[in-house]
Amino acid sequence: MRFFRQDLHTLTGAYALDALDSARETARFSRHLSRCQSCAAEVRGFREVATAMAFAATTEAPAAMREQVMTAAARTRQLPPEVRTHARPRRTRGSAPWIPWLSGAVATAAIAVAVFFGFSQAHTQDQLNAARAQSHALAAEQARVEAELTQAREHDQALAQILGAPHVTLLSHSTSKGGVAVVVLDAATRKLVVATSGLPALPAGQVYQLWLIGPVKIVSAGLLPAAQAGVTTPVVATGIVKGDKLGLTVEPAGGSKQPTTTPIVALPLPV
Amino acid sequence: MNPNDSDASRFRPATADRRGERDLDDLLVHVARGDQGAFETLYDRMVGPVYGVIRKVLRDPAQSEEVAQEVLLEVWRNAARFDPAMGGAATWVTTIAHRRAIDRIRSTTAAAEREQRTADVSPPHDEVAEAVEASLDRERVRRCLEGLTEVQRESITLAYYGGNSYRQVAELLNVTLGAIKTRIRDGLIRMRDCLGVS
Question: Do A197 and A180 contact (CB within 8 A), yes or no?
Fold first, then answer.
């Protein structure tokens, strides 16, 4: 669909309320924002209105949540500030619309990866050192992450490439068996990274298998590695075509050529 | 930890209470340095709006709690990426919260439940009525919402609190897409002026 410029401008309101119709439309509008300073300023003002509406909706949260969040935070390494020196081409600071759909997407992806995948894409030695200095309590966790990283270095390059892409989309969905699958999708290169957290452990002789479920055919996207502390390390899948869903099934050890059980999650992939 | 307890010090959106806002920005800076005490304070100040807005959109308490936890952990992890030049901390946090709720609602299986939900979405007037209670935020927002035309008010509440896309809002209100875009924008301009957003 083509928009007239004026038409596009009237989308500031819907955009600020996260009410655009699709990830694609949101991405398109984000690009427009990076070129339209008045639109970006308008969106900022509207976001403040939205903030007021959020405060007006203030509701007392379950008390137990606090402890859970604090415990999780204590175990969770923080991301370092964005390092602009080796940044990929970015919008300049002055004209950049802050708002997350796009500019935050990369950071968001990194969070998902860090939280669910157990490590972050920012893993140069310097950054690890800086992070270590930040908190002694996290040293053990970092040592684990470093070991994991050394092991996964090659794999990780493919990961970093996807996570560093300018327009990644973060998708997550809980599975019908519990737990959650987190996907970072780079629609431009038709690649994704997927990891899971909290899936129930399978009996010996069974594995979780990933699928790209298309309108005409289903292709295996590999097996999920065994979980460590409930989290599976990231798997990269490529060659996504329009209409594909990412599926996850339980299969006999070694995997199957085609799924033999009902997917426990089937996540549409907007490419 | 009741966020309503410290009305005087906590951030009041879209008012002249810039000191409160800056406090929250400062807190986030400390959080970014790994200060867990600062994170606890930030949590206490923000959990109400975060949980509240997610709850508005998702309605289901268990899902809302799950998403709110993810959001607050995201704030912890990502604090160093917060850029005060781009907007206040409260806006940063509530934007993440609203977006995560929307992500959840627009993901697969939620779609089915959503059909149901859209059907029995409360009339926006109820949303306003619900908000009558004490808090100044509620009062101010309620008053400003009431200053809108009916279509503007319904469009904004169905989009923001109802988690509907503008296309869905257009269908619900039986108005053209172009008209909805304009109503939402015009309504937000009036809200912005009414709330005194700079």
Answer: yes
